[in-house]
Specification:
This protein has 218 residues and is of the alpha+beta class. The protein contains four helices and six strands; from the N terminus they run H-H-H-E-E-E-E-E-E-H. It is found in: Cytoplasm.
């Protein structure tokens, strides 16, 4: 058996011609340590990626806002079109009922609106009014070609402008929309009446002056 000499440690074999430092174990390089230049590059890359994400987010947000605005405009347009179609449908229906309403008006003028016919007629007029139908046209109001249709024409000395002197058929409107103008007879001022009135007005003070300049009492 081989005996070990106490007090001596066994040293690794050193090749001939090598220094003692070559026999010493070398320390392993540190794990995870990166150069400072690599860290700056990574930070710059992350910043660029963040800027790209922010830009993309802004674009998507703008797209969403634009789509929302277009949708709101679409809803308003659809609602406006729906109201317009409804008004046109109601106007068409009420236009077909105008001859019936004219018959009811004539019957009322002649005292023939009595009994069950009166009840039905009044119910029809109430329903038409609820749907927005309004009657217009009165005697004595100035003639307006936008809402009146003149069927008869005459002259009158007691009017100062073209005036509706008779309502042959009342007009009807729904809101601001006229569905039938009032059919009227109109009268214009008598030709020369204005000049005569003006001359009379000028002569009136002269007559008064003659009265004032009468013979004085002795």
């Amino acid at each position: 058996m081989t005996e070990e000499t106490p007090g001596f440690e066994e040293k690794p074999d050193v090749p001939s011609g090598a220094t003692p430092d070559d026999a010493a174990p070398k320390a392993a390089p540190a794990q995870g340590a990166a150069p400072a230049g690599d860290s700056s590059a990574q930070l710059a890359g992350l910043t660029a990626q963040l800027d790209q994400v922010r830009t993309a987010l802004g674009e998507r947000t703008a797209d969403l806002q634009r789509l929302q605005a277009e949708y709101q405009n679409y809803r308003r347009r659809v609602e406006r079109d729906r109201i317009t179609v409804r008004e046109i449908a109601i106007a068409n229906l009420l236009t077909e009922l105008l001859p019936v309403l004219d018959d009811i008006g004539r019957a009322r003028e002649h005292g023939e609106l009595v009994g069950g016919f009166k009840s039905v007629a009044e119910s029809l007029e109430t329903v038409a009014a609820k749907m927005g139908l309004q009657q217009f046209g009165k005697e004595g109001e100035p003639f307006d070609p936008t809402i009146h249709e003149a069927l008869m024409h005459s002259y009158a000395p007691d009017v100062t402008e073209t005036t509706c002197v008779a309502i042959l058929q009342p007009g009807y409107r729904i809101g601001e929309r006229t569905i039938r103008p009032a059919r009227v007879a109109v009268a214009e001022p008598q030709p020369g009446a204005t000049a005569v009135k003006a001359e009379g007005a000028d002569e009136a003070p002269a007559a008064g002056d003659e009265k004032d300049n009468g013979p004085e009492e002795g």
